[in-house]
Structures are given as C-alpha cells and as structure tokens.
Amino acid sequence: MPVAQHVMRHAVQRPSHPAVRGPGGELRYGELAERIQGAARHLLARGAGPGALVAVGLADPVALLTAVLAADLAGATPLVGEHDWDRRRWAAAAGAVDVHVGTPLPYAPGPPVAADAAPGDPAWACFTSGSTGRPRAIVRTRASWTGSFPHLSDLAGIGPGDVVLVPGPLASSLYAFAAVHALATGATAIVPGRWPGAALSAQLARATVVHVVPHRLPDVLEHPGALRTAVVGGAALGRESRAAAARAGVRVVSYYGASELSFVAVDAGGGGLRPFPGVEIEVRPGSEGGLGEVWARSPWLAEGYLGEAAGPLRRDGAGWMTVGDVAHPYRAGEALRLVGRGDGAIQTGGATVVPEDVEEVLRKVPGVGDIVVIGSPHPVLGSVVTAVIEGAAPPPRSLLEAVARSGLDVAQRPRRWYAVPSLPRTGSGKPARALVAARLAGGDPGIRRLA
Fold this sequence. Notes:
alpha/beta; Rossmann fold; GMP Synthetase, Chain A, domain 3; 2 domains; four-stranded antiparallel beta sheet; 13 helices; 27 strands; AMP-dep_synth/lig_dom; ANL_N_sf; acid-thiol ligase activity; AMP-binding protein
C-alpha cells in the first residue's frame, strides 16, 4: 500500500489529529490528505503517473513531504534532492527525470485519486549521503520501502500517539525515512528541515521520539523534555552515549545500515548489533588483519542506482549485497562488530563522503599533481573532510575552495587543506591513503597546512 494511502486512512479515522509541523505551521491529517490529493491530481495532469520519476527539491519540508506523498499516490517514483539544484545537476544525478518539482505543488480539484499499486513497483528513490560529483540515486521497490515500517515501529515503540522530531534535512534518506514512517504510523511529525539549534529544547518539550545521528545525541540529552526514545543511525554509538541516555531516562535504539541496503542490524537494548528483522548477515573473509566484508540479504535491499551510476554497491547471484563495510568475523547469534567503511568513506555530521568523488573534482585544478582526501577527527562532526595536495607549487587555497564550491556538495567540501611535495604510495603506485592519514595525525612536519 502506498504511504499516501496510510495518510488517507488516518485522515478518515482522525482528521483533526496533528500530522506534521514545519517552519510555516501545522497541518492536521484531514488537511494533509486534501493537499496530497490535490497535488496528486496536478502531477497526473503533468504526466507523472505510474513509471514516472518525479524529482522533488523544495526548501519547505512540509511542501516537500506533500509533493513526495502526492507522487506516491499518483503511482510515480519520488526522488528527493537539494532544493537549490538546477536541471543540469538533476540530470547528472539521476539521468532522465520526467517531472521536476521546484515550487510547492498547487491544488487541482477533482475526484479522489486511488493508486493502483503493487509491491514490486519502484516507489522511492533517494541519494546516498555522499552523493557528489558522481551523484548516486538509489531506487527501491514499494515492498522494500514500506515493509520495514512495522518492524521499526515495534523496535522503537512508535505509535499513533507519538510526536516524532526529525531534526535534519529531508534530502537525507535517514531523515526522509523517519518523517514518512511517522506519517504512515499516524504519529505527528515535527520537521524543521534542518538542525533546529536554539529551538531544539522547545521542540523536545513536545516530542516523544527523535531520530538523530550519533554526534547530535548529546545535544538532545541536554534537554530531553518529554523524550522517551532516541532512534540513532548513521555511525557507531559508544557506550558512554548510551549511559548518558539512560541517565536522562531516554531509551536508545541504534541501527546500522546504508542507503543501498536499508536496515541491516539494530541494537535495541545495548547488547550489540543484531540482524534487523528479515535480514541475513555474512562477514566474508578478507585480507585486512582477519577482518571481512559485510554482506546482507533481506527484503529491504534496493534495486540499484539510477542513470547507470557507478558506486560501492555489489551483489552476487544468490541475492546478497554489500557496500564494502568492514567488520570482525561474525557468526549467527553473535553481535555484529563493525569497523568502518572498507573504501575509506568519511562520516561527517551524519553524511557519508566518498573520497574518490572529491578527489576526482579537485584533481582537475591546475597545479595539483595528485591528491588524497581523508577524514580528520572532529569533536562535533565526527570527522571533517581533509585534502592533502601533492605538488612542488600547489595552487592557492582560494582557487581550490572555489572549485570545491562549484563541483561539490556542502558536506563534501574539504574543511582542512594541506600540501606535500610527494605523496607516499603503495607498491602499485597509488597514493597510500592510510599512511597519509597516519602521518598527518602524527604531526609530520613535511605536510604543511595551506593558509
């Protein structure tokens, strides 16, 4: 069943119940359902019916959710991206897009729209957190998108009486999933569209559930208000964070997954990551000190990338998929002990940045002999993107930053810039990324910071 149909059902049962609160005010379920119906009729008139790809880039989170659910009701596949992308960027990111939604959809009068939906229909598309100069849009079926909803509801205890705070941009698949799940459940979703800053305390005074990335959990726990549960995804969660949540009276449900794989493992009580319902996990032996690569098989896996984009997703002939994450050896019944991304991906503020994507853009700058991009530790963001430029006379930082602004998304732009006459290399001649990171962390005087 389309998520929009769940909203229609809630509108019939509880039309006056608050559905969504955004920067511009609140909509009740009856009002939201009416807006979705009118917007769906508008999209159908523009040709956005079954099989169509609808690109949605809106700054207002309530208007964005309305457009997404209208496309869902019309039988199309919504794809959420950044509101400031132009047509060229959308085309590079997703290939052929049938309809662009860059302004809030108008209400078109007419009879109710009834979706003729099947579980195998492509029903949701999103960008990986690290979509960059080589954007990766992922598409998944209706069943893989909505079938996991009841499991998350059970694990986190989310029901129609909850108020769910989603304090981040809906262009992030983590936050988009959280908001849509809340509406499918019949709960009230608070969607500020970005981190609420000074308004966080007031929003937590009403919220019973919050979805956050790990580095934001301490901020939440300072003023937990009415909070009962924190659903934490995006990176590993330490014991100290769980202990702090327990002292604040907040239950933590953390999970591991990827945009391509959806949910893989969940820790609902502090005992370690266990397979999410319906998921099988294998850690296939590798050559890195006894570590292996995490593979998953489940009903929640994506279909793949749009526009024939290349990416870390790989699959075998038996229905298993991996994005290259690395873990210690694993046996069924044990906790999954993750180490990190095998491809050197950088977790920064809840976003995943693939170093090769950043390097590809910056390597074209005149004066850059070669480049290595790594993550440097940061007390708030987890890591920040750091670029180490090879060259006897590296280009000025101002030029590098100008190229980064024109070719990279905000999360991917290096915050720290260094130069080195010659990069260390592997036996095959490739830059030795791990050795560069170790030398930088050790304060190697041969690596100088670009002012």
